[in-house]
Amino acid sequence: DQQVKQNSPSLSVQEGRISILNCDYTNSMFDYFLWYKKYPAEGPTFLISISSIKDKNEDGRFTVFLNKSAKHLSLHIVPSQPGDSAVYFCAAGGAGGADGLTFGKGTHLIIQP
Amino acid sequence: EPEVTQTPSHQVTQMGQEVILHCVPISNHLYFYWYRQILGQKVEFLVSFYNNEISEKSEIFDDQFSVERPDGSNFTLKIRSTKLEDSAMYFCASAMVSSYSNYGYTFGSGTRLTVV
After folding, report:
1. Mind telling me how many Å the CA of B102 is from chain A's nearest CA?
2. Contact status, residue A13 vs residue A73, Cβ threshold 8 Å
C-alpha cells in the first residue's frame, strides 16, 4: 500500500539547471507534506514543507508545489548545486505529528558538473 | 545546532537476542519517534512517544518492540527477540510540538542493526 509514491528512483541534472522531483499520494486525509534530504550514513534532514491549504511554499532555492486535485507535489531546486546530490524523500502526515509520517521510497538526485 | 544523537552507529546481534538502541533527543523537544529503513526500501514509521507514553504505533511495532524514556534525556527502542528481518537502519527523531508546522522534525544519524 504505497500511499506516497516517488516513481523516479534517480534523476540526473546538470549543475545550474532546475531539478524537479515529483511525488504522488493517494490518501486525501494528509494535511502536511514534507521533503527530506538524505546523505549516505546520515539521517534524513528536513528541507521544506507545505500545508494542504496552500499550493506553493518557497525557501531560498527550494520551492514545493502542491496540486491537491491531482494528489501530486513537486520539489523544485534552482539553481542546482553539486551539494544537492543526495536522496530526496517525500513524506506526508496528518495534522497531528504523533501519527507519524508516511515516506516515499526516495529519488536519488545526481548533480553533474 | 542541536542534534539527535544515536548510539551505537552499528550493532550486530544474533537472531533471538535482545537489542536496545539508544537515542538522546534534542533537550527541549517533547515528541519522540522511531523509524526504520530496510535496505533499499522506504523509511517506515514505528512509534511516537509523548508525555511518557506511546501516542501512536504502526503495524510493524508488535509485541517484540518496546520504547522507554528511562530518564530525562534518553529514549530507547528495545527489540526483545530479534529476527533476521529486523535488520535495518533505525532512526530516532524528535520534535518540539506535535504539528509538522514548517520544520518537520529532527532525525538522528541512525543505528544500523544487523541480525545474523
Report:
1. 6
2. no
Q: Which residue has the cell 491537491?
A: A68
Residue A7, judged by CB atoms within 10 A of its CB (0-12, 13-18, 19+), counts as: exposed
Work out the percent of chain B whose per-residue pLDDT is above 70. Answer: 95
For chain A, 113 residues long, give each residue's pLDDT as a single digit of tens: 679 999 999 999 999 999 999 999 999 889 889 999 999 888 999 999 999 999 999 999 999 999 999 999 999 999 999 999 999 999 998 776 677 889 999 999 999 99
Inter-chain CB proximity A36 and B104 less than 8 Å: yes
Query: Which chain B residue shows the shortest CA-CA distance from A99?
Result: B56
CB B4 within 8 A of CB B57: no
Q: Measured between alpha carbons, how far is A96 from B110 in angstroms, rounded to an integer? A: 24
B7 touches chain A (CB under 8 A): no
Find which of A1, A46, A75 to mutate to test the B interface (most B CBs within 10 Å of its CB): A46
Q: Name the residue in chain A with its Cα closest to that of B37.
A: A105
Q: Is B52 on the interface with A (CB under 8 A)?
A: no
Q: Which residues of B touch A34 (CB under 8 A)?
A: 100, 104
Residue B104 or residue B84, greater confidence: B84
Number of DSSP helices (H) and strands (E) in chain A, helices first: 0, 11
